[in-house]
Amino acid sequence: MGCEDRADTADSGGGSAAEVTCDTLLRGRVTVFQPARGYRFSLDPVLLAGFLTPPYGDFVDLGAGCGVLGFVLATRDPHARGEAIELQPHLADLLARGAQINGLHERLTCHVGDFLAWAPRQSEGSFDLVACNPPFYRLEGGHLSPKRERALAHHELALPLPAWTAAAARLLAPQGRLGVVFPASRDGELFEALTNAGLAHVRMRYARPSPGRPRHRLFVEARPGPTSREVEPDLVVHEGEAFSPDVSRLLDGAL
Predict the structure, then answer these.
(1) 139 — phi, psi (to 5°)?
(2) What is the pTM of this model?
(3) pLDDT digits (tens, 9 = 90+) for 227-244
């Protein structure tokens, strides 16, 4: 099965049929099924995977959506094994289909459910990496979409920042790490939540859409330990009409 001109229908979780597109990443090495309308992935999970250096060991993709982050992590590290958790059945179905077509179904287990309910059932300290492209907006921040799929992806309806950071920290092995992409404008809230969860040893990199424009994203790798921040040079996404060389390398799957 290929991606050329593929579209089908599936229940969107809101009771209506939705077209599904088939798209590729890393020069065709990763295939993703996603809704043609509504929730669609951005560059953020791909850039987060590139920020997190392998090996990944046993990892969790928290709020996995249609699977982009987990697929890229597993593709970059052929020895990694993951658990991908997605609340919305429609997206979880696309996640499972993607795992199958990418040949990752034996290394990436897909779960339909609430991460905050799933995490306490796992053994404490059992994962090397928890990675997350979480909802970016507080409930009181920005316009809440009337479409549940989009609202859950963008707003903290099911994954409040303090709750998921605490749950993720519990899952990490002593030398484990939490990887997250978050709005640069909420960096103080993220650092506070990480510190409260005992993950104050931080490697970080801000991103900006193009030279001279304000920072819009923050990539963080946090570990247990005392407060420490290692700041890497900003990632510039676009230079002119094209992706920057750094981003192009990440989109090609370079390590």
Answers:
(1) -60, -35
(2) 0.87
(3) 999 999 999 999 999 999
